[in-house]
Batch of 3 targets.
Target 1
Amino acid sequence: MYYNNISAVSYATEYALSPNDKFVYMKPHGKIGGDCASFLSQCLLAGGSRMQYNNLPWFYHSTSSSPYYNCSINWSVASSLYWFLMNNSTKSNYGPKGKLLNDISELTLGDLIFFQNSNQKIFHGSIVTSFDGEGTPLISQHTYNGLNVHIRSEYFKDTIYYVRIFI
């Protein structure tokens, strides 16, 4: 089994501006939360990742009473998704795995980018869905819904993590 980055990118470009109604759109509460991690998880699922229920859970289920749902924290919180990807890469579990890249120039379509603030908290994530004419990655994301946009300088305060996805 392999990560189909083209399927993940196709999903991202289809639902970046108009969220998929099969998933609850997680609105921010004040200045916290949002739908970025859930959107990335949906993209990973579209790219062939299987949900995981064991010791590192990564899953989402709609319930019969919409708009209610059940999901793992690793599915829906940016910092938790990042740590799930890193920790899952050392295990033989199902689900997506991540490998930290050294530089933005190593990114390919379907890779993820996580942003860390000055409090050392990963607060946002996006997926690489295109490149501009100079080879700079363009991202798609939720919460700040965007399709093929440049990384904005206010997203990062301290650190940006570039993550290669595999299964």
Target 2
Amino acid sequence: MADLYERLRRIREQQRRGAGSSGGSAVTRSASAGVPRVVPPGPEWQERSPGVYYRSLSEALPRRYAHQISPGGVWGGLSPVFRAGETCLPLFLDVETSGLSGGSGSVAFLVGVGRFEGGDPGGSAPRLRVEQLFLADLGAEGGYVGELHRLLGESPCYVTYNGASFDIPVLRTRAIMTRRVLPEDRHLDLLPVTRRLFSPVIGSCRLSLVEEAVLGLRRHEDIPGSQVPERYQEYLRRGDPRVISSVLAHHVYDILHLAFLALHLNEVLSLSPPPPGEGHAGPVSGPDEAARLRLLWERGSSADRDLVAERIQDLLASPDGRCSSLGQGLADLQILIARSRQDWSALESALWLLYRQRGSRGDAVALAKFLEHRQGRFCQALQVVITAAELRGWDPDLEHRAARLRRKIERFGEQKT
């Protein structure tokens, strides 16, 4: 990826030099109106229609991901967690708009897609082809949207980061405004899965933070996304490609790192060890293991669910698995699994672990209910409730449970046989 970073740096330098070669400014004005004429965003961009420009870049992907990508660019072996099928031809999509909101007044002036280009049997690394479409004239949006839809194709499988809330609605709105229908088939938004896996570990899951903490990737000479609309407005006013060059590079990073993240998440969501090969450039934070196993239990295949159950039992049998927040998360999941499988021994073990480690009123009530209803051990259940009340204080749930258990002890004795 260092080659692409270097290429982006050279492009920005060329834009600066090119802008200065015509009297020190890239602004060209109409003699009659004094209004900036449409200027390409850079020398490497091709004009597809008046005011609409296109460029394409390609970058090699790490060989460790080669097993996920076929020679035809098909992404295979997708985790069932994604709910996007076992294979797809992904279109990594990112949109930059003229405003920070996604309303009808916000124009998607820069849209980019990334496509896998598979390696060959001889062992060449797979690549990502990044294609960008830029609107240099707001009056040309009709032709721009037409070019965009040709770029997207008929049945795209979009892969985005927060695209369900932003990118797709923006493009859908712009299509309607130009009397078109956005082509839509499948959509995989990586943000919800990323949050489930990594927010317990790294906190905020903004893409820039995920890139650094999870993927070990850093951007060079990047700008904050909040500055993008202002830069575009300045470009339209001045017709100077230098003010938009950093936005274009920022956009390439978004698409490239989106593809890296998708491949990495698919690897994380596999219960099989990844193949040996090239790793990431920097330190990588692993996912929250309890969250990962819960996702696989909730959305995985039947084989995944069996492996999850085995994995949890192994972890809870180890000292590390029983301690700290990991043990509590695993125990919560063990309760869910044990109830679905009616494994009462595993359920009791998990309930006791939570009662002893976390010790909330809810944990006490859950354990007391199990001892009362499943095993008829009324005195032991009452002791659990009283101990929790001594530590946490009485509340209506504990008072109700204690009164109920005392009545049963009077009626049946210490334990119902």
Target 3
Amino acid sequence: MADVYSFSITRDEFNDKLGGGFPSGSFVVIEGGSGGGKSTITQRLTYGFIENKTSVTLVSTQLTTKGFINQMYSLDYPIAPYLLNGTLLYIPVIPLVQAAKSRLDFVERLMSAEELFDKDVIIIDTISSLIKYSANIEKSLDLISFFKKLNGIGKVIILTIEPSQLSEEITSMFRSSCDIYITLKSRPMANEVKRTVVVNKFTGAKGPVGQIIGFRIEPKVGLVVEIASVS
């Protein structure tokens, strides 16, 4: 088991800005509004992990398998070999989310899906879409303690959250329980959108962590870390 799970790739400094990787057993929460870049960040993390020989399960409420593959290749994150050799397990849950209003047992179903949690890193984008109809305080606590047990055997759990989809009380529980808490900000400037990663909490970092990291998304390039971060 790795001490730190690096997501370094040669063409950007994202891993370096975030302490050189996520420590083993980290519970990571990435929070942002609709269109804030949560999926792109998880796609970049996924590609970085698998490039560093770390196995990943990515559960997505956003894209079909075909849509995910197309999106990754449009960012020049070639993932087909990793899907084929099993390093990456991609699970689209769009149909489940669309039918979720009638399903109030979503939290229990998630915890009982053992094959989701075999890999070193488990990413759920977005957890709030998945549990918004079934999460109450008690179930959310159960889910957090379940994730913490997985952290205890070294697995890294990364959740993205759209705060408007959950009550403030439940969102706060995830924030206070995590080891690494990141918010994504975006604001229009002139004819572009300025995006920033804000690191609110980072426990156990092995290297220096930037507090505010500017980034942009470019076709055929992927995530680009801005040299001068905008606060």
